[in-house]
Design a protein that fits this description.
single chain; about 140 residues
């Protein structure tokens, strides 16, 4: 059996951003949607990023979320992703999500990411600052 440390590969993306828009989607579910914009690095390539994600409470200090986004690498082309995760809120106002992203692109230079599954850590602080790290799941 493969161990967890053998399943996680290299860091493939690291970025920071800021929530730009928040809206209530459904008051019955307490579903809230956020859009964010930022910059990062996809392997060795600088990128701009926009994404939208929503979250609903599923327990005490626990939320389930889904999102999608687009990376705009400086070398051209685009990379899209969809993600799913579970978040926990701490007393300091920061919410930390853990989950998976699924990637695709039509760029031949970035084709390594096609159908790749990434395992992520995503944090949002009380001021709307975001931080994302994604590792390849082998």
């Amino acid at each position: 059996m493969t161990s967890l440390s053998e399943m996680l590969g290299n860091l493939i993306y690291e970025g920071r951003g800021k929530i730009t828009v928040t809206r209530v989607v459904d008051v019955e579910e307490n579903k809230v949607e956020h859009s964010a914009a930022g910059n990062g690095r996809l392997k060795d390539t600088d990128t701009a990023e926009i994404d939208t994600f929503w979250a609903i409470p599923v327990g005490k200090n626990v939320v389930y979320g889904e999102g999608q986004g687009i990376l705009y690498p400086k070398i051209g082309g685009i990379v899209t992703f969809k993600g799913y995760g579970i978040g926990t809120a701490n007393e300091g106002g920061k919410t930390s999500f853990r989950g998976t992203n699924f990637y695709k692109t039509s760029s031949t230079e970035l084709s390594f990411i096609n159908n790749m599954i990434g395992v992520f850590e995503f944090e949002v602080d009380e001021s709307g600052n975001t931080e994302l790290k994604v590792w390849e799941w082998k």
